[in-house]
Amino acid sequence: MYVSLYRKYRPQLFKEVVGQDAAISLLRSSFMDKRLGHAYLFSGPRGCGKTTAARLLAKVVNCKNPTGEGEPCGVCESCTTVTSGEHMDVMEIDGASNRGIDQIRELKSHVGLTSFTGGTKVYILDEVHMLTAEAFNALLKTLEEPPSAVLFIFATTEPHKVPVTIRSRCQHIPFHRISVEDMVAQLRRIASIEGFSADEGALWEIARSADGALRDALSLMEQAVAVGGGELPLHAVQELFGGSSRMEMERFISLVRTSPQEASEAIRGMLDKGVSPERFLDALFPLLRDMWVFALWGEPALAGTALSGEEKDFLRSEAVHWRSEHLKRAAMMCASMFPRARMGLRAEVFSGLLFFELMSIFQDEPPAEAAYIATRGHSAAAAKIPAAANSKIAAENPRAPYPSSTAPTSYDGIPDRKKHTPARRADATGGAKEGVSGISSSGAPEETTRNDALPEIIQALCRDDLPLAAALIDVRVLRVEDSLVLDFSESSAAAKAVLTSPRAKFALDCAFGITEGRADTKEEPSPPAAGGAREKPYSREAPRAMTPEAISAYLGADILMSKHITSDDSEDEVSDITDL
């Protein structure tokens, strides 16, 4: 009867276990020093050797002639029966199917019985985290004080699901993912023993796809040999995986740089072979990461990569053609697409999105999200509204203070209020319209953001007019050549009412003039307040740091703005400040 490779080549000695030197060394030392505990918890990912190590420990504690190095002899009756799974005192229990309290009670009833062979009774409980809470509770007392000739070995892939009361009664030994290099060496050795040739690239491809599990690597190699007709060529592995091998990803990245049309055909071809979007991203991301690391640090970075000689040569020849920031953006783009790919993204949509983003990155174009953020006014930097957004605003609002075809321009400052002259703008019918001072028909807005002077202005206004400062937080501030424009499209009605008053017009002109460092701006008294009393002019002092009282007052901004609105403030009196 045919035996699978992972069963045929299961280690029979501690020294044959691959990639778990620390755990195996601890077990062998404990046995030789006669310091074995009564309970062990082995944790780690699938296929890394937990159950194998448990069987070896059960074998060596019952071996009649153990070696001086803490190894079982492998030839005595006890060793052979443990290997074949027929030892009467070594019991393997599947925790997933024997997870109830009744099964644990039965186990407890047998623990105190004398062993059949006079040796140590070993209970190997696999997937122990699947036990119910009641089963764990029933096991506690027996696990804490078992008979002297009983050894418990628990194995799990999820140790955090094992109650702490159980973990505290065990010696916890973690097992780790097996490195790609160790797996390649083991696969090469097994291929030599089995007598079939294996391409080096095929071994590396299988080892990477196994994701640290040697059992998975042996299963994949077995399938690839069947596809390759008794041999292990690289094309058999590529056919088995349906595309998305490391070599195919390398060819795709090279085509993105040299021939985008062929790159587009290549990605569609790989998806047509049956590669899922998630699998494609899983193969592309490591390549982009390795290229980025090599672009940053060069040859020293290769020491930390699990790559074959041909794959390292590719990095040396290809990574020099890419900028490190482009490779980083591309890798992060792949990471951001993983959630959508897992949700079942169609192959056509996935290929289009991926190729579009890659071409945008490698051609040094801004991300598509940046333009959207800028048009919504959510950018943290000084975002400018593009011409397309201007067209949309002008079409939706005929009072827009700039033509839709005008591109954004820079701004040098706001002049003195006295020097403002009414500008003309086009209304919805194409005619000219008066009433917006300082707004040129040839000017285009530039947004004043929190990274510019706006925070200082707000801090200064908190000292003199807290409601006005609170209202200013709620709008977008735009500059058009020599005038200030406020966008109320996403603000509250209270903020609009405060900022469209004549009093606010003068206050903001003064505030922006101060912030821009205008020494020639003259002070003007504020308009008379209700009752005929004149209000205190706005101070020309440098803005002070915001006080705790001012910050606390922000919480009541809407109330303050509502109280600030007076019936005599009219929107028709606005000359310099208007909404879009």
Care to give the gist of this entry?
With 580 residues, the chain is an alpha/beta fold.
From the helix content, strand content and strand pairing, which structural class follows?
alpha/beta
Strand order of the largest sheet: 2-3-4-1-5
Helix content: 40-55%
For the residues shown, what is the average pLDDT? 74
Dominant shape: extended
Number of domains: 4
The helix tally amounts to 25
Could you please describe the fold and organization of this structure?
By secondary structure, this protein is α/β, with parallel strands linked by helices. The chain folds into four domains: 5-174, 3-Layer(aba) Sandwich (Rossmann fold); 180-241, Orthogonal Bundle (Helicase, Ruva Protein, domain 3); 246-362, Up-down Bundle (Zinc Finger, Delta Prime, domain 3); 386-580, no CATH class. Helix content is 48%, strand content 9%. The protein is built from 25 helices and ten strands. The chain has a five-stranded parallel beta sheet, covered by helices on one side. The radius of gyration is 37 Å and the shape is extended. The chain starts with a helix and ends in a 16-residue tail after the last helix. Residues 368-444, 447-451 and 514-580 have low confidence and may be disordered.
